[in-house]
Automatic annotation (TrEMBL):
Pfam family membership, one: HTH_1
Protein name: Transcriptional regulator, LysR family
Protein's UniProt keywords contain DNA-binding: yes
Molecular function terms, GO-annotated: DNA binding; DNA-binding transcription factor activity
Gene3D superfamilies the UniProt entry points to: 3.40.190.290, Winged helix-like DNA-binding domain superfamily/Winged helix DNA-binding domain (1.10.10.10)
Coiled coil: none
Amino acid sequence: MNFQDITYFLTLCGEKTFSAAADKLFITQQGLSKAIRRMENEIGAPLFERGRKTLALTPSGEVFVRYAQEMQGIYARMRDHMERLRDERHNIRLGMTMGVPLAIQAVELEQLRRALRPCELELTETTDFSCEEQVASGAIDFGVTLEPVDQKRFACVPLLSRPMYAVAPQGDPLARQQRVDVALLRGRRFVLADRQFKCYGQFHELCRRYGFTPDVAETTMETLVIYRRCLENGWIGVSADLPRVMNDCPGVVFVPFDTVEFAWNITLISAADRQLTPFEQSVQKDIAALFR
């Protein structure tokens, strides 16, 4: 028995004759009769009293019709709910602070794009602070940014934590260290990410705890520029743990900072006052899975 059989039965109840019900259902009388016989055989009792000009329900049919109407109502509500869920699907606007896409395998990102079809993943790279403002304003659905994050404004899903690195040219005394001794950075010149990235302020705060203000020669929006300036000018750079980039940068050495206060902790954010749909909750989990 299926929902089509239920529809046949209820239509026959309403029309009272096989001919009228068959016409309404756009099937043959023989096909309708077979469907009703199949239902009666399945439940083990006749549903209609035959032999009259118009059909009448048997006592079993009177019981069955109540359940059939209830099942039809449940099915209709289920279809309506599923259609509303389908309508909730939409293109996902995801912002990532610059450098984060380099921490993701390209094949995994492509798998996420395929899983969202026919919806699209609209991915933009931005800065930490811009990412947060775009999420708060609703310009993007989700953002991947550096901690700390205002948890009154954003719902957060921690993604990963990696060391921050000092970047030094090969042959520089710093390149021979196992861990960065921050005190020895006094007097060095630095190339850092732009002020719109949280690591800029975090690095300044780290240096101030050691009693000095860093001498910043240049800031940039591009990670690769940091590495080039280290090679060209002998400056010290500060970078996140980005293996895809680090492996393609001969001539520089990456030395980790040995402090939990200065680390690359990234988190997935959405607006705290936004109620995510079931579809968006599913996408949120898929995005988080990219970083596992």
